[in-house]
Amino acid sequence: MKVGFAMCGSFCTFSKVFPQMEALAGIHEVTPIFSDAAYAIDSRFGTAEEHIQRAQKICGREPLHTIAQVEPVGPKKLFDILVIAPCTGNTLGKLSHGIADGPVTMTAKSHLRNGRPVLIAVSTNDGLAGAAENIGRLLGRRHFFFVPFGQDDAVNKPSSLVADFSRLPQALEAAAEGRQIQPVLL
User: Fold this and answer.
1) Residue 7: which H helix or E strand, with range?
2) Quick check: pTM over 0.85?
3) H/E element holding 162?
4) What confidence tens digit (pLDDT) does each residue in 119-132 have?
5) pLDDT tens for residues 77-102?
6) Of the candidates 2, 23, 168, the residue with the CA atom closest to the CA atom of residue 87
7) Residues 24, 140, 96, 132: is their CA dihedral positive or negative?
8) 58, 21 in Cβ contact below 8 A?
9) SS3 state of residue 86
């Protein structure tokens, strides 16, 4: 399978996401895609350059990171499935409202024109607040699938949701068959 693997700026989850990218790259052709934030921001979780180099090493190709680079995704049918991991609340909102103003959202828009699946691995501090409505909208939309998710720290961050990234490969196989892995809520 040809997999587009888009990363957004939830940097605290990159340590869990990269091993899943590596697992997928062992059996699929994986192309990394970085949001503007993921491509440019250094954080306490590593520098942008470290993340870019790691994705390139895992996938054997440089990450796509501009709108111009990702616009051909749909017309050329570059991917069988698109993974967005981690998918931030900001990206959830844009996907929910059809906004394609960056590399990740444009990839999704271009990819969806062919009716192909998009697998979302949520990572947002407002998943049970502002982003809840957007998650709900996407759960009800055709071609959108989710990696199972739940609260990551109910006491200290009661609105925060994060995907169980270890279930990403299993969720990918289900989404490729047009099925939502269950249970979606952990």
Assistant:
1) strand 2-7
2) yes
3) strand 161-163
4) 999 999 999 998 99
5) 999 999 999 999 999 999 999 999 99
6) 168
7) negative
8) yes
9) strand
